[in-house]
Amino acid sequence: MKFHSQKVAWGFFATCMLLFSLQLIYGFIMAFAHAGFDGLHDWIPFNVARATHTNLLVMWLLAGFMGSAYWIIPDECNRELAWPRLAWVQLIAFVLTGVAAIIGFHFGWWEGRKFLEIPRPLDYLVVIDVMLFIANIGWTVWKSERKSTTSMVLFFGLLTAALLYLPGMIPTDNQTVDSYWRWWVVHLWVEGVWELIMGAILSYLLIKLTGVDREIIEKWLYVIVGFTFLSGILGTGHHFYYIGLPRYWLMVGGVFSALEPLAFLGMAIYAFSMAKKGGRTHPNRVALLWTVGCSFMSFVGAGFLGFAHTLPQVNMYTHGTLVTAMHGHMAFWGAYAMLVLGIITYAMPLLTGRKLYDHPTAGFAFWSSNVGMTAMTLAFAVAGVSQVVLERRAGMDFLTVQKEVEVHFVGLILAATLFTAGISAFVWNFVRYGLPTAKVTGAQQSTTQELAPEPLPAVAAARG
Ligand code: HEM
Ligand code: HEM
Ligand SMILES: [Fe+2]
Question: Any idea which architecture 4-437 has in CATH?
């Protein structure tokens, strides 16, 4: 690694591994409950398991983004992090707040608003924590003479993500108004500013792993940012169809959200073409596999499966059913989980000085988790479509239908087992990498060369 302060990224990545593993346990608790085996009901009822599962997901992804920033920003800015110790304090505070929230859920201390269940007092702690994080990376970027497009998009993505947490805290006792602001957070995160974070991290990984010129890679980043804002902002309307807001949202939401897959398609074409152009000569091939895989799976999960229920005529029937869970799993997995696992795969050899990327478990982790997640998505799809037909078209009672679809959750459990085998291999590899003890190589000397591409030896040799 280049800088000492990049080590803090390891702390965030280790947190990801812990919280992700815990998230999967709660996924199984719910999958068994859906299949008719709800033995833990008295201790962990479904709503508690669900809030815990999704909040752990958001927490580990945010930890992954922060870790990525603490890794990427010093590298891109060619200087140590402004306040490395603060970054460790901020990590510990983040984990303590998260743990308090999760324990609270189990004792009925929650807000009951999907994805934003964290109780209000803890929200303030999250805000303070994220402000410290933004200040740390912001000051590092500000003090640096080298402001690359990648680092700026990453910084502004993270800053706007932090700001967009605030609408979710606007107090109201009106259900429609509450729903309205909730979507400002949930939608404008995953289909807005998180896409900037994704674009920037993909850009960083492609620069490092393909050896293609930085200028070419970063030019694409502008296109992606453009597409994201063009479609994603007004695309929020696809959540406003039937919650008590004016009718024009049917049209606005339908049209703009239908354009959203373009940004994901753009990212997929971008990653594939850069990987092809670069000739795949980097030794850490599995990191490139995660990078390109992320762009592809996010297109399938977010773009394709998002489009599948985004038109008001369809959403009228599918809203809030297991069809949403089908899309939610593949979208979160493809876009953000794979992204974080990708940067961890890239950074671990550099953080620890060990090279485990050639080990068979590294490839197994990728393929088993992806095939497992694809099968999980199919299981949710079958259950979801059956639910829509029986409940919304045939008019059967909600609970009768839940009984009818129980069998599909046996399929989900099998698929999730395959998925978990892959993730276990990933976590095992992480443990085997050990602590971040690699040698620190220091800053690059010349400033004129800093913005120049970083060709791989093979590419440089081919260019003569
Ligand atoms: C990586 C990007 C995305 C992620 C992580 C994601 C994830 C999710 C999640 C978790 C939900 C459920 C939210 C809730 O009910 O609170 C949801 C809902 C929805 N998503 Fe996405 N999504 C993404 C992109 C997209 C795109 C691009 C589209 C459209 C083309 C889309 C269309 C929808 C629709 C229509 C709903 C509402 C479903 C309902 O009415 O129950 N999503 N998404
Ligand atoms: C062992 C693996 C997993 C299992 C068995 C599992 C199972 C489940 C179940 C049963 C639900 C509740 C669906 C309902 O409301 O009825 C759920 C919700 C959810 N899970 Fe998972 N899950 C797993 C892994 C994951 C992963 C890896 C992700 C993200 C990358 C994820 C993201 C979500 C999301 C976003 C929701 C909320 C969906 C919605 O809003 O409708 N899960 N999960
Ligand atoms: Fe949305």
Answer: Up-down Bundle (1.20)
Question: Radius of gyration (Cα) for the chain, nearest Å?
Answer: 22
145 alpha carbon – ligand 1 mean position (Å) = 39
Three-state secondary-structure class, residue 62: helix
Report how far residue 189's alpha carbon sits from residue 462's, in angstroms, rounded to the nearest whole number: 42
pTM above 0.90, yes or no: yes
Pairwise CA distance, residues 464 & 336, whole Å: 38
The pLDDT assigned to 453 comes to: 42
Digit-coded pLDDT (tens) for 136-147: 999 999 999 999
CA distance 52 to 300: 26
- Considering only CA atoms, which of 148, 129, 136, 166 is closest in space to residue 221? 148
301 neighbors 377 (Cβ within 8 angstroms): yes
Find out whether the beta carbon of 191 lies less than 6 Å from any atom of ligand 1: yes
Model pLDDT for residues 55-73, shown as the tens digit of each residue: 999 999 999 999 999 999 9
Query: Would the CB of 117 count as within 6 Å of ligand 1?
Result: no
Listed in sequence order, the DSSP H helices in 236-321 are 248-259, 261-278, 285-298, 305-307, 312-318
Question: In Å, how far are 74, 216, 363, 436 from 286, measured between CA atoms?
Answer: 24, 23, 7, 20
Q: Whose CA is nearest to atom 42 of ligand 2?
A: 329
pLDDT at 443: 82
State pLDDT tens for residues 244-290.
999 999 999 999 999 999 999 999 999 999 999 997 789 999 999 99
Can you give the residue ranges of every domain in the chain?
4-437
242 lines ligand 1 (CB under 6 A): no
What whole-number distance in Å separates Cα of residue 436 and Cα of residue 11?
9
